[in-house]
Amino acid sequence: MEDFLQSLIEDGYKKNTIDTYRRVLRYFFSFLSLYNYDLTDFDEDKLCGYFSVRYKTEKSFRTAMSAIQHYLKFKGIKRRLRFVPPENAEFKEFRPITDDEIKRIELALSSLRSQDLQTAMLLIVHLGLSPSEIGKLKVSSFGRFMGIPVLQENKIKRFVINPEVEERLSKIKEEKLPISPLLSTTPSTIKVTFHRIMKQLDRDYTVADFKDNYVARLLKRGLPIDLVVEYSGRSLERVSYINRVLNLQSKADVIEKSLKEKT
Q1: Rounded to an integer, what is the distance from CA 21 to the centroid of its chain?
Q2: HSE-CB for 84 with a 13 A CA cutoff
Q3: Who is most buried in 64, 225, 236, 249, counting CB within 10 A?
Q4: CB 74 within 8 A of CB 5
């Protein structure tokens, strides 16, 4: 570690930055020791969870991940870490996306020439899948569980609750081999297209917003929280927070309606 910090000094990094990196790396080494990991083999989800306890703002979390990323590069380890902190109420408020907004987005997506790219965008909008998750899906990932259409590939699990998405995936399954990639488009292309569409619509929605809204749709259908966690990829803390927001809104509507009727 000291060799790495010395290289930063030689590169002109300020003392405050050096001290911050030293603290981050000591915390990183304690994480590796706790879980018996080494530099080349550690669980990134556990790393994010471990660091989010100590680094509670998005800026501090990103700084910590950046320090680790720099250190791994210095050690000759090729690995790109996520710079997005775990989503919870501390970092980000839940932003409901209305049906009218969804229809407006769908209309913009219909102008895309590539059917695969259209489908990828719909997987973001309706299932809350990220571009990297979409890139991991194969044709065999789409199937049925107890008669319900699902996408499942290792840790990626989604109930396919949108009819258009289900229809598109069923068609792909009929036309392609099971081992083929589900979509013939790359995560980077999906990511660039998503940001272009949002800019075109003058909206600042992120993939995380669509993940949250997928969670909300499952909760509104009455699924228990543990199943929503399993089939959304969101943490228990985040799902519980969204559930609390939805219930509060529901109670407010009921009270307002009752009072208006009485008046």
Answers
A1: 27
A2: 8
A3: 64
A4: no
Q: Give the Cβ contact number of residue 30 at 10 Å.
A: 11
Domain count within the chain: 2
Helices in 83-233 by DSSP H: which ranges? 99-109, 115-127, 131-136, 163-175, 187-200, 207-220, 225-230
| Shared domain check, 232 and 197 | yes
* Tokens of residue 102, six digits: 């969804």
Instruction: Identify the three-state secondary structure at position 257.
Output: helix
Q: Are residues 117 and 240 in the same domain?
A: yes
> Cβ distance 67 to 21 under 8 Å?
yes
Same domain, 50 and 115: no
Domain membership of residue 199 (yes or no) is: yes
Task: Please indicate, yes or no, if residue 260 is contained in any of the structural domains.
Answer: no
**Cα separation of 187 and 34, whole Å?**
33
145: helix, strand or coil: strand
C-alpha 38/C-alpha 61 separation (Å) is 21
Provide the 3-class DSSP secondary structure of residue 76. coil
Per-residue pLDDT of the chain (263 residues; tens, 9 = 90+): 899 999 999 999 999 999 999 999 999 999 899 889 999 888 887 888 788 768 877 788 889 999 999 999 999 998 888 766 655 444 567 889 999 999 999 999 999 999 999 999 999 999 999 999 999 999 999 999 888 999 999 989 999 999 999 999 999 999 999 999 999 999 999 999 999 999 999 999 999 999 999 999 999 999 999 999 999 988 887 888 888 888 876 555 656 666 665 55
